[in-house]
């Protein structure tokens, strides 16, 4: 949003470098308020290919058309007491994505197709040339944004001021479905979000001020395919169950093409936040204390996996319709959808004292408490895996047909929310600032603090509600010992011809759809079960960062400031996904299946917090403060960041595990090395030049 509507004060920090695996930035947003005079403005920013130059490396101009317009208006309601401010902005974006080249069957290759549903699918895919290539225009991209902000400020007296602010944001993006080219298939989305804020400041006395805030932030997001989209049933696949709204989730052909996108879904997020801060100046002490309570709601209604996923390991298998695994993808997978109702309360309390011991030395002392509370799925859709119980053959009392070692809330030893909360997260802070010579030109500063990331990632709860028995997933694969799928026309292998040709067995008797929640206690789990678990032994350990720094600053002549600093940190309890069911070295039966005596499990993941990271840096900067309208700044950082997070795992460690088995004592040593974002040398320079004032110049200038 341009500054005509709101003022932004943005302070970014190299947080990922300084604090290991946690990344972020600080953004302060200040909304304008009305005054005793009426003021307003209007604006429009236009981008159009007619007005644009061609990119030097592109053969043609881009097709982007972007029109951003709006305005603001503010003024008094009651002179010196009550003011209003309002603004509106709309952005319309129209573009055509860059053209694409895809590998698709040519006419000669299409003639080899034998599967009826494959023959029908090929009618909706462009024909390739002699080398099985085709080029086509990109999908149209249509985006609309609308934003409204309104604010009222009222001063009851010199001691009490009240602010109410409202913000509304709307976004819509088109879905794409071209029956002549399924390769352009994509879902659309609509997001509506609001924010209501009440802010009350009360001055007890000049040295004691209370600041209270309450906000309510509802959000409703939906996504889904275009009206008129096809399903695989429309292509001739004899799949008994499909999502209510026709869609195609994924069709993959190794070495050739793939298409599909997300099915219909809705996401409801509501946040209620109460915050209060007290500022108290007492003698040499500047004390601040307060806290925040946030109540969060996340409701998910997602037809994920209902449309099914199909994989073909080669174009030859695709032409015959034979479903086969490749690159770790299952040959066929279908689910009952992803539905969850999560609730959580986030709490933080703090106290800090900036103590001025004397004119030259100030000490900062603080303490913050943040409990780590797990998300509560209101229907108890979580599970736990315990290896000793698999070995002993112990089963769940809630769902007796679950594999041994898999348990649910209500079973002995299983926390209601899948993991136990952690109330012991106390974060101290200590710092100092020292004027070395008492002339305010040379200073030494230092500090140490502990920081917790107590917001448990909701993505793990998403995976819990995907699982049997809460939302059964039906998997067919060609892995050793697994149940084989049929063809694209007959994925469940119900036809005698399919059975004779592929040696597969009829799966219709164990096909679990349509599925109705809640599951019956005697629900069947089938084979190749996906299992996800928190650490069954320990309580949740939030990611923790220990940060320290010391810096030296010196004011030089000619308004030049130089600074040298040592900044370091250690991060503990970063999240790792551990694969408990790897294949033995050299292949063979999955390890847990060897214990279970058959193809019971596909993947068994355990999310725990056992990753560490270190960061060390030396930072030097120089700043030439504004003289004659010119400010120059330069910074050099020499650093090293190391961790034992498996490559590609990202900051959450989700879905990527170590290349070495989980019980290998050298696993962490094997993964230890430079962080993926590690950059030993970094130099940044910038300048601001205020151009000469043109007042008094001739009219043309």
Tell me the β content. Answer: over 45%
Regions with little confidence, pLDDT below 50 for 5+ residues: 1-27
Overall pLDDT: 90
CA-based gyration radius: 31 Å
Largest sheet: 21 strands, mixed
Main structural class: mainly beta
Helix content: under 10%
Q: Tell me the span between the first and last alpha carbons.
A: 31 Å
Q: Quick recap of the structure?
A:
The chain has 701 residues and is mostly beta strands. It contains 9 helices and 32 strands.
Task: Describe the 3D structure.
By secondary structure, the chain is mostly beta strands. It contains 9 helices and 32 strands. The strands form 5 sheets. The protein has a 21-stranded mixed β-sheet that branches. The chain has a 5-stranded mixed β-sheet with strand order 13-12-16-17-25. The chain is globular, with a radius of gyration of 31 Å.
